[in-house]
């Protein structure tokens, strides 16, 4: 929906995921190595997403690491975490395919 800044620390991204608004703040940045975004407001009780880039020969490996918690505490996480995880895996597989296609076409 909106963005201020790029991927550097302090940048903000406002998204809509389905009907849910989501505001993320970029909290860490190292040029050509990583950036981290954390949910300020959104569907999760906690969301920290680390994007890491590593040179592998003449290619780049992108690794996404996510720490998340569902709202409602440990019981909700234990009962529903198994439902959320496959959706996140599928979403990131799709994002990686799109990112790869974009980078290879540039």
Average pLDDT rating: 91
Counting H and I runs of at least 4 residues, what is the number of helices?
A: 1
Shape: globular
> Which secondary-structure class do the elements indicate?
alpha+beta
Any key phrases for this structure?
6 strands, Alpha-D-Glucose-1,6-Bisphosphate, Chain A, domain 4, 1 helix, six-stranded antiparallel sheet, alpha+beta
Note down, in words, how this protein is organized:
With 106 residues, the protein is α+β, with helices and mostly antiparallel strands. The chain has one domain: START domain (Alpha-D-Glucose-1,6-Bisphosphate, Chain A, domain 4), CATH 3.30.530.20. It has 1 helix and 6 strands; from the N terminus they run ββββββα. Strands 1-2-3-4-5-6 form a 6-stranded antiparallel sheet. β3 and β4 form a beta hairpin. It is globular. The model has no long low-confidence stretch (mean pLDDT 91).
Secondary-structure blueprint of this entry?
Blueprint: E1 2-4, E2 12-17, E3 20-30, E4 34-41, E5 46-56, E6 59-69, H1 73-105
Antiparallel strand pairs: 1-2, 2-3, 3-4, 4-5, 5-6
Quick description:
This protein is an alpha+beta fold. It has one helix at residues 73-105; strands spanning 2-4, 12-17, 20-30, 34-41, 46-56, 59-69. A six-stranded antiparallel β-sheet has the order 1-2-3-4-5-6.
